[in-house]
Amino acid sequence: MKKTSKPKLSLLMVLGLSFTMVMSACGSSKDAGPSTEPAGTASNNGSSTTTATEPAATPGSPLEEALQGKYKGTKVTMFGPFVDADQKKFESSIKDFEDKTGIDIQYEGSKEFEATINVRVDGGNAPDIADFPQPGLLASIAKTGKVVDLTKVLDQEKLKKNYNQSWLDMGTMDGKDGKIMAGIWNRSNVKSLVWYPKKQFEEAGYKVPETWDEMMALTEQIAKDGDPAWTIGIESGAATGWPGTDWIENIMLRTTTPENYDKWVKGELPFTSPEVKNAFELMSKIWMNKDYVYGGTKSIVTTAFGDAPKPMFENPPKAWFNLTGNFITSFFPETAKVDQDYDWFYLPPIDSKYGKPVLVAGDIYAMFNDRPEVRAVMEFFTTGESIKSWVQSGGVIAPMNDASLDWYTSESDRRMAKLVQDATTLRFDGSDLMPGKVGAGTFWKGMTDYVSGTATLDEALKQIQAGWNN
Known about the structure:
InterPro entries: Bact_solute-bd_prot1. Belongs to the bacterial solute-binding protein 1 family. Residues 1-24 form the signal peptide. This protein has helices spanning 9-15, 62-67, 84-101, 113-122, 135-142, 156-162, 165-170, 198-203, 212-224, 242-255, 258-265, 274-287, 299-302, 372-381, 388-393, 411-422, 430-433, 436-452, 457-469, and strands spanning 2-3, 7-8, 75-80, 104-109, 129-132, 172-175, 178-181, 184-190, 193-196, 322-323, 343-346, 357-367, 425-428. The protein is α/β, with parallel strands linked by helices and 470 residues long. The longest helix has 18 residues, at 84-101. The radius of gyration is 21 Å and the shape is globular. The protein starts with a strand and ends with a helix. Mean pLDDT is 88; it is low at 1-52.
């Protein structure tokens, strides 16, 4: 489940196949987390509705020079995880830029990207640009000093205007001699979404909850009306357990500081800490109540994550809520229509002092070779225009503020993009940032053992934490 079109979906691709992301979708080699510096809490609310025909370039910048034809005939190599349909969408998104500038972006996609990129970098055969669906993998390479520091390449003031500060914080990592901007974000998936059957929900007279307490009250009301509110599945073959990590990550962002979240991801705040145990306990108030979960608590382990939403589309619905990233819509019935038959609401805040955090996944682009034409391409990738056609085709959210909300083809996607733009804090999928033996190992297994009843909560937390110690 990790990253292709969504976050964890790519994890499954590498494991055997798993947003997708969402944004991140997916096997990931996970290492160190992102910047330990706290995320900014300022919200960037301005969303342009312009329909620019070419990316906005800083005067005199490599991008402007490229658009003037200065680098015509040059080539820029790029390596990433996009293959098949995703590769076609990516290549379509860069075609207009290539036509206008004469720069040939030679993209190579591989399902074995995570396993290959280290070999290529270590062997002196790094691409000019690489697309990392897991920032933890980039963080481990950044420490070698082989990643170009983008603070020396890109206009920092422009970046601050075009990205929520949290995106810039998540792209700041430890270099060989201190902090560097190791990459910029180009595509995102959103993982703080609760999906529900819109038409029947409204017919039943239910109201979208704005707070966690309201959501729990509605969960109880639906139970009294005779239905379990939630449909949850964490079965995913070798990756069984991963959907549960999204619950914990979302709750952590709503009950403690971004700094604590970062410490947790880096192993500095243990799973046995009060902060993490509290997140599990809040999740348990839903998961461990047989009246709240379709099929009862033990069905969570045996239900495939992609099958979990199916009860919402029965007539009448047999369950009402499913917490998953935006990639889950590919598992919805083909006849179901967005904004009509189904919709989503933001997983509500728990403690108002932590604002409106959003859990995301996505793709971060890093630069390995510093030439003017490579700088131009990197600057292009910081513009909404670089992902416009992909946004218009559906399935991804642009992290840049200059990506017009008018580009999105559904109200659902427009609201999702606005949610990302207005978030007080953005944080990347935590299990994707942890070392694989934890994030894709003991974390998954501990979640599964706990919900199946083979381990108590305290036992499960100790089991997960042991992954850091081995």
